[in-house]
């Protein structure tokens, strides 16, 4: 008897003891699903009718879609917000003239901007993205929506943003610092998309290995025998470290490898109780290399980050060493950045243009949107430019 009572009580608990709040939530979910369904049907009808054409009346639409006027009105409100339709008082519902406008979403990982001690590369890249999207919007039938997310660099796009793209009926998207692939390499997005500093069907990358090879060959051409290199950790997360590359190539050039002259600056301990800026790291590494290894003091140095090069220049000045004279220097620079302005006359530079990255993203997205989109693995590399010293 007690067992039977327990079963009855369990059935009552599961079936009848539902709070009013739970009922409202369930009702809301059903209502939202119905609004989304009607919204999709209305959107399809508007696309079929074409720009400027009139849609049926509210009563006719309710009959056509077998729905209530409240649900239909909610769906119409959403479509009017998206500029798909517009309502004229006493005239009816009309398809917007901009119905064929492409909605393109740009998702930018703002964690790239969080470290004030990093190169201004990311802020310059963002400025170019904003400028290029404005130009496209002015001359093409496209509308751009920017979203700033915060997550570890290169991590798969969160479900929140994947749903955002679905709900907003995005036609395409550009991802900066986020991955459009799951761990099993399946695609998280079914719309045309391009990525930078992440992963996806179409990926734009900087040819870091080519820039490292350019730097090495330039230093060898200058007669350098003891070559040092410092690089930030973000380089080695996405490509072969310059240390491994140099260790592989130097013997073939008849030169010795000095492992103690290679540094990943980000692993340095901070004496200040905070994360070191890249300038401070460049300063400390350079000071160490040129005071601790007098027997193997470098005669050539490659610096894979402009902020680190800025710190290294301060160290050389304190040590009384002349770049271009006592030591040959080649460094990455970001065109448009003020970090090394007026300081590169005696050093070679490797330029990586943010605008080249942005133009490649837009060009590749245009191509993907213009054809039948078939997800694939496409990699496009931005080639660096080497500029010799001007002094």
UniProtKB/TrEMBL annotation:
Q: Which SUPFAM superfamilies match?
A: Periplasmic binding protein-like I (SSF53822), Winged helix' DNA-binding domain (SSF46785)
Question: SMART domains, per this entry?
Answer: HTH_GNTR
Locate the HTH gntR-type domain: which residues?
Answer: 28-98
Q: Record's InterPro entries?
A: LacI/GalR-like_sensor, Peripla_BP_I, Tscrpt_reg_HTH_GntR, WH-like_DNA-bd_sf, WH_DNA-bd_sf
Q: Write down the superkingdom of origin.
A: Bacteria
Cross-referenced PROSITE patterns, in alphabetical order?
HTH_GNTR (PS50949)
Molecular function as annotated in GO: DNA-binding transcription factor activity; transcription cis-regulatory region binding
Q: Which UniProt keywords are present, listed alphabetically? A: DNA-binding, Transcription, Transcription regulation
The UniProt entry, under PANTHER family, shows:
HTH-TYPE TRANSCRIPTIONAL REGULATOR GALS, LACI-RELATED TRANSCRIPTIONAL REPRESSOR
Report the protein name in the record.
HTH gntR-type domain-containing protein
The organism named in the record is Tengunoibacter tsumagoiensis
